[in-house]
Amino acid sequence: MADIREVKILKLLEKNLKKGFVKVIPETFDDLWHLYNVIYKNDEIYARTSREIKQDERGYARPKRGERVSVFLGVKVENITWDKLLGRLRVHGTICQAPDIVPTGAHHTINIALNTPVTIVKKEWAKHQLERLERASRTSEKPIIIVSIDDEGYAIATTAQYGVEVKAEENIKLPGKHEAEKREAAAKEFFKRALNGLRQVWMEKRCPIAIIGVGFVKNHFVKFLQNEAPEIADSIVDVKSVNNGGLAGIYEALRSGILLKAMKKQRIVEETELVEEILKRLGKSEKTVTYGLEEVEKAVQLGAVERLVLADTTLRETSDKKRRFLEELMRDVEEKGGEITVISTEHEAGAKLIALGGIAALLRFPVR
Prior knowledge:
The chain has helices at 29-36, 127-138, 180-205, 217-228, 230-233, 246-256, 267-283, 293-301, 312-316, 320-335, 348-355, and strands at residues 11-16, 21-25, 44-53, 67-83, 88-97, 107-112, 118-121, 145-150, 153-160, 163-171, 209-213, 236-241, 289-291, 305-311, 339-343, 359-363. It is built from 11 helices and 16 strands. The radius of gyration is 24 Å and the shape is globular. The chain folds into 3 domains: 11-138, Pelota, domain A (SH3 type barrels, Roll); 145-256, 2-Layer Sandwich (Nucleotidyltransferase, domain 5), CATH 3.30.420.60; 267-363, CATH 3.30.1330.30. The protein is of the alpha+beta class.
């Protein structure tokens, strides 16, 4: 049986809402993504970091100019950036708390690192923010490797809570079926290259694999894996047909729900299903759905919102004034018994929500 590695989860060390702080240890890139969606401008972040100490920043026992030392700092957030490729979360702001050797008010960037404690302080925590951290602290979501393969190429991707990461792709053109020998030889070489790409990902993740594709190529590839790499084949949990190849096939599989068995309870699946439900109701001209800020606000005021759905960029990449308005809107929804879901724009469902204005709502009852 395949060696499936234990999945780490966010460690929620301490929570004191009276004092406005939550202390966590991020253990995965998914955890960093959650923090990216929880930390806002004007929050305060406390963590151990390194800083270059110049001579004029010390009043005593001066080191050599430009010495970099480890210090515990508090930074009032001005902006935050997420580098998905490097898996890095950078928080830039002004120093609000520091030892004597570091001047307060100076600018500093904290790189929030894996397996290192970080404390987040807010004037007020929103319910959906706390729920996001609490879910991350109790949910072990195993990633899934999805291989989309047909006679025109393959794409290998892994799922994350924030979206799909493409790990390898190749476009090819196999000889036609009337050239059986050439086709068989070319397919074998093609499968070898696909296996090489898959092996690299599998050795790193050691997680379940789903094989999807158009026609019978996917089935031939599964047999190839069983013969050439049985230890990888043992990790296959699903083989499904789709109408599109490559990355488009992967998104089709997520949309259609055919991988629900393999991806049960994964955040990306839940987000995709939610956006598809919004689009389905809109397509049928149902009255229990609305979108766009003005229309959603009306529905919230009437207490009609069962679930408010926002794109992460709608909250993050906006003015302070609009963010405060959106936070009030979310608070109003929660006080009236509604739920909030923030959708990642790192996958297709988020892009579709952006096309609707970045905000939509499922309603308890129709609103004129």
